[in-house]
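User: I'm putting together a teaching handout on how multi-component assemblies are represented. Below are the sequence lines for each component of a complex, exactly as they appear in our records. Could you produce the 3D structure of the whole assembly as structure tokens, so the students can see both representations side by side? Please keep the chain order the same as the input.
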Amino acid sequence: MSVSYSGVTKSFGGRLVLDDISDIVNEGELTALLGPSGSGKSTLLRIIAGLTPLDSGRVSLAGRDVTNTPARDRHIGFCFQDYAPFRHLSLRENVAYGLKVQHVARAQRREQVDELLRLVRLEEFADQYPHQLSGGQRQRMALARALAIKPDVLLLDEPFAALDAQVRAELRSWVRTLQQEVGITTILVTHDQVEAMEIADRLVILNSGRIEQAGRPSFVYDHPATDFVASFLGPITSIGGISYRPHELEIVSLGDGAESATVSEVIRLGFEVRVVLAGDDGTSTWVQLTHDQAKHLNPGVGQRYGIRVRSSKASKDAPLSSNVDAPR
Amino acid sequence: MPVAPTNSLDVEVARPPQPWWSGLRSAGLDSAKSITGKSLVVGYLSLLILIPVAALVDNAFKGGLGSFWSQATSTEALDAIKLTVLCSFVAAMVNAIAGTATAYVLVRDRFIGRSALNAIIDLPFALPTVVAGITFYTLYGPHSPFHVNITGTWIGVTVAIMFVTLPFSVRSVEPVLESLTIDAEAAASTLGASSFYVFRTITLPAIMPALLTGTGLAFARALGEYGSVVFISNNIPYHSEIASSYVYSLVSSGQNAAAASVAMLLLVGALCVLIVSNVVARRLARRRG
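Assistant: Of course. Below is the structure of the complete assembly, with chains in the same order as your input.
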């Protein structure tokens, strides 16, 4: 089911949190709302779910206006950042809650819950209480609970933020697979650009209550519409006043029409090496080399080189800051 | 060239011989501190609670178990205790409901005068109970401006007790409502539950342990309430006399042993209520971790 919202505006106590936001999420797509904290992305998610009232604007599900429909009638699965477990209920009872509300018969309920628990791989914990589960297990419980009502749309609010790095990476790809298996339209809120790029079909980048850019992750990365998007999605550096990704530049011998610069720092990070160079005009530029490139070049502090844009980049694409209109 | 010790073993060896009390100082100082702390606490509690209670027990049993029992269960004593328990129970139940509603409004709603209301809740704690008693007598007594006279009735006693014990119910439930349940309630509503169903299945179970503890405290406090009730109850023996005022009348007429016996019974009752409500609350809370 597609989700669309238009002109969504919301302020809290005089502070504008969302400023005239509009977008369409296509059926079956996984969209990531990406932005720094305070950008309004969680508020937008809660507005879509009907948990927070909006000041003006419309929200539609599959073309049907639900702006004034209460949360309980929207049929949207929502996973909270802290998982919002029902602490006094066992894992099984948590997952069964939505089915009980719908008066699903006991036997059928049990069958469906068992199947969901298998899906999220928590069968053996069915009779445990939320406080006996780990963060990752609680996250999966929240997911199973939301999916139990067979929602038309799934909304995930910072689903992996509270997990440690390894569990996070695991759950991330698992959620992606699950989403594709179930084929459910999903909107995920995150402040982690790597997470968003890895998991999403489409990015919507928010900054102080406005959409900066929307589009496929790889496209947005290569063609950021604004400086904010460019710097939020990955490191940027500049040469001759134009912004580039550090891996789009290369270090060559002096001459050849390259900007000349002096190596001021070499940082080795395992498979990649960062070379920081000071240009003759005093600007600092950061060039990222692979381990092999660095080994071949062997740059040392104080040595002079030329910097130029890699030929592959120069011929195929425009530089980052040229404000290309992003196709959806 | 001297080499600095590099591991803890070397440090141990390099240490000069220690005097015999060094062990006391390193390992024993903390426990000595905690012993001082413990004895302070025990001393303080003895002075305030244990010694008076022991004196009470001693007084109650001065004439032996038989005289204790006959004094504590005389018709007048029993009538007073019955009225007190009934009114305390009704007041605690009403406050459990009204207190939860009040706490809910305080925590969830934003309105003008919210902080004023928040301060007023504690007024019964701050106000001398006698002042409350006289106020109730003036408002709902024989010269009531509203022509409502509830003096000498169990309703009057209950109202006075409700006033004194309301803060227990509100303040016990409030922090739980504040911290525990907002996202869980929202989650339940996205799963299709109506507000009443959410309250019944999510909110109420979450606040139940705190509500039980608060209600138990309120009930126990009510059993011994005197100042706020004594005017409105009219103290008619066998009819509207509450236990604490019966005890007071016994003391006034020099029947110390009888007074101690009734007081003892009240004390045991209050203690039982506190223990039961705490145990049940803890058991409820345990499985949620």
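A couple of points students might notice: Confidence is low (pLDDT under 50) at residues 322-328 of chain A. The longest strand of chain A covers residues 15-25.
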